[in-house]
Design brief:
- It is a single chain.
- The chain is globular, with a radius of gyration of 21 Å.
- Strands 9-8-7-6-10-11-12 form a seven-stranded mixed sheet.
- The chain folds into two domains: about 40-185, 3-Layer(aba) Sandwich (Rossmann fold), CATH 3.40.50.10860; about 195-345, Rossmann fold.
- Helix content is about 45%, strand content about 15%.
- The chain has 15 helices and twelve strands.
- With about 425 residues, the chain is α/β, with parallel strands linked by helices.
- Bound molecules: nicotinamide-adenine-dinucleotide.
- Nicotinamide-adenine-dinucleotide binds next to α8 and β7.
Length: about 425
């Protein structure tokens, strides 16, 4: 095993993203100058802003909007509301967005935003005031031609609606294309809400087919039962998989015979957590990663699979619905164990693919039927998976490295074709 797996040191998410980039850049023998440019952040904005809370207090929040690279088009990336948001995390997520858009070949650069806050402890009105003020603060960067936000952890269609409205109020007319993942009534797209989980499901189907694993009866474990994780679990269950374990921020639930997805989704919706589900044993959120299964889907936060727990992970396919769930050290351990990794920039790209389709519909002011969206999503995800698999085979590298190679090559080509200004 390589030295780096022994040296268990904590990397912050941006260092982790840069480490992954460096490894791919080395493999590509990338020019030193390009290497320095692509591992740097192009633009970043930090904002401190006040929000009047319901009890009349003034609270000050910190938010970020980071654009990693704009070579292939306008910046694209979600907005996260979470108590642990840091600039390093947002930088990493922005860099991964650049590679993600490139790996599925949609014409965007990479960005991300975040506000350090705890939405679970805030009222709807407080969240709305926070969103409107944050939108105004970052309005010097966002716009339908420049930088288009979308949902991420603890933000949803409702938050995107407030962003669209705030931006539009400043302009004096409606600008639906400034944000994706909006409610349908104001220019959202059919199929966007489930797109990340659906896209993940398509890549899992491709991986299972490649390995000769029948989906009927295949066991699935999912960490994080939100937009991405719950949808992937539901769709895989519909294909005959047995979802044996799921977790959320409060803990997990395990049933070796399979969890009833419909009842579990209802429980999560009504009680707010999967641990209230009666038909299973309670386990911790980290235990869920270590339950032997055919398909493991981390769908919560970064750095969940580390050198510490990777040796105990027993799965055949790791489909990274979350961004950055696996550290580089853990990656090597899983590769040694023969796990097929569908890397985050591929496995969870369905969200940005349908965001792209939503933005195109907004610009055209013409809306498509859901079948058309599903068909395009499926085609893009399957072709991207096959392309990455082909590169992995040709270049004798793992899927993560292959996805990075595909993405970096496209960004490098765009950079060279544009030239360096001035
Ligand atoms: P979400 O807010 O809908 O769900 C997050 C889920 O994770 C919740 O169920 C929450 O309880 C759970 N969670 C939080 N902390 C946890 C912990 N420590 N252990 C276990 N579960 C925990 O968010 P989402 O949009 O589904 O995002 C999840 C992941 O998917 C993130 O990494 C995000 O960046 C990624 N992602 C989301 C999209 C999208 O379109 N929503 C697209 C691409 C990638």
């Amino acid at each position: 095993m390589a030295e780096s797996t022994v040296e268990i040191r904590e990397l912050d998410p941006f260092q982790m993203a840069q480490r992954q980039f460096d490894m791919a850049a080395e493999h590509l023998h990338l020019d030193e100058g390009l290497r320095k440019w692509l591992r740097s952040i192009n633009r970043e904005l930090t904002v401190q802003f006040p929000v009047i809370m319901d009890d009349g207090r003034l609270e000050i929040f910190t938010g970020y909007r980071v654009q990693h690279n704009l070579a292939r088009g306008p910046a694209k990336g979600g907005i996260r509301y979470h108590p642990q948001v840091t600039l390093e995390e947002v930088r990493a997520l922005a860099m991964w967005m650049t590679w993600k858009c490139a790996v599925v070949n949609i014409p965007y650069g990479g960005a991300k935003g975040g506000v350090k806050c705890n939405p679970k402890e805030m009222s709807e009105k407080e969240l709305e005031r926070l969103t409107r003020r944050y939108t105004t603060e970052i309005s010097i960067l966002i716009g339908p031609d420049s930088d288009i936000p979308a949902p991420d952890v603890y933000t949803d269609a409702r938050v995107m609606g407030w962003i669209m409205d705030t931006y539009s109020m400043h302009k004096g007319y409606s600008v639906p294309g400034v944000v994706t993942g909006k409610p349908l009534s104001i220019g959202g797209s059919l199929g966007r809400n489930e797109a990340t989980g659906r896209g993940c499901m398509y890549t899992v189907c491709q991986a299972a087919q490649h390995l000769g694993i029948p989906l009927e009866g295949a066991t699935v474990s999912v960490q994080g039962f939100g937009n991405a994780g719950a949808t992937a679990a539901r769709l895989l269950a519909e294909l005959g998989c047995r979802v044996i374990a799921v977790s959320d921020s409060q803990g997990g639930i395990y049933n070796k015979n399979g969890l009833d997805m419909k009842a579990l989704l209802q429980c999560k919706q009504e009680q707010g957590t999967v641990i209230a589900f009666p038909e299973g044993d309670k386990v911790s959120s980290t235990d869920v990663l270590e339950i032997p299964c055919d398909i493991l889907i981390p769908a919560a936060l970064e750095a969940q699979i580390t050198a510490e727990n990777a040796p105990r992970i027993k799965t055949r396919i790791l489909a990274e619905a979350a961004n950055g769930p696996t550290t580089p050290e853990a990656d090597e351990i899983l590769a040694d164990q023969g796990v097929l990794i569908i890397p985050d920039i591929l496995a969870n790209a369905g969200g940005v693919v349908v965001s792209y389709l939503e933005w195109v519909q907004n610009l055209q002011e013409f809306f498509w039927r859901e079948e058309r969206i599903r068909e395009q999503l499926q085609q893009i995800m399957e072709e991207s998976f096959q392309h990455v698999l082909h590169v992995a085979t040709e270049e004798k590298v793992g899927m993560r490295m292959a996805a990075s190679i595909v993405a970096i090559r496209r960004v490098v080509q765009a950079t060279l074709d544009r030239g360096v200004y001035p």
